[in-house]
């Protein structure tokens, strides 16, 4: 029954018979020892720890016994160190000698400003010849009058036609009131210096005003007064380089051109003639100036 079933399955009975197990023993690989080079043993060998050496010592120490033993006894050819030319050290760029920078001396006033170094004679010549202002000339300008060593300087805004003709500042009724104020303060025209911001009759060309301001500043520097009295708003603003109204300037302690010279802004004699009540205000301002003056060394 079994044989018929196997025949139906087309399986030959003899193929189902058990075969004896065949044990294959592989032969160890044949070792071929190269001529002149011994093959290292496969047994585990203790490798001696090699101490670290610095770069300079490695070249000479490579032939020592520990290194040969660590390489299994092989003789390693020692290569001579190759000397590589190092790149030249970077240096700072070549310094070029530069000419010394000469610092200008600014302790003295610049000669380019002739007014800043002018004396009284030079100032008068500049005004007479119209060097600084084309409106000024010998017959149409007045620099001032009084003592050039005065301790009090009085400044008006501009001369009138009468002032230009007389060669003296503040004439007529205004001049009489001015003289009365000086006398009340114990002064006279000859003991003070009287001048104006504009040295000639004023014009509508305001571009000419810088020359007048420069002359006035130089006059103050040459006189070196202890007190400056500015009559009127324009004169006060010019001396103080301010744009505030006269009433505001009168309430503040003022100095002239940052020089430390006391400035007393007040109303002009012409304003006092038009408004009689201003005389008391002017006298109050002058009394304050007198107290300052007496306290000065």
UniProtKB/TrEMBL annotation:
Pfam families: UDG (PF03167)
Cross-referenced SUPFAM superfamilies: Uracil-DNA glycosylase-like
Keywords assigned: 4Fe-4S, DNA damage, DNA repair, Hydrolase, Iron, Iron-sulfur, Metal-binding
GO terms assigned for molecular function: 4 iron, 4 sulfur cluster binding; deaminated base DNA N-glycosylase activity; metal ion binding
Top-level lineage group: Bacteria
InterPro entries, A to Z: UDG_Type-4/5, Uracil-DNA_glycosylase-like, Uracil-DNA_glycosylase-like_sf
Residues covered by the Uracil-DNA glycosylase-like domain: 143-287
Gene3D superfamilies referenced in this protein's UniProt entry, alphabetically: Uracil-DNA glycosylase-like domain (3.40.470.10)
One biological process term in Gene Ontology: DNA repair
PANTHER family: TYPE-4 URACIL-DNA GLYCOSYLASE, TYPE-5 URACIL-DNA GLYCOSYLASE
Full protein name: Uracil-DNA glycosylase-like domain-containing protein
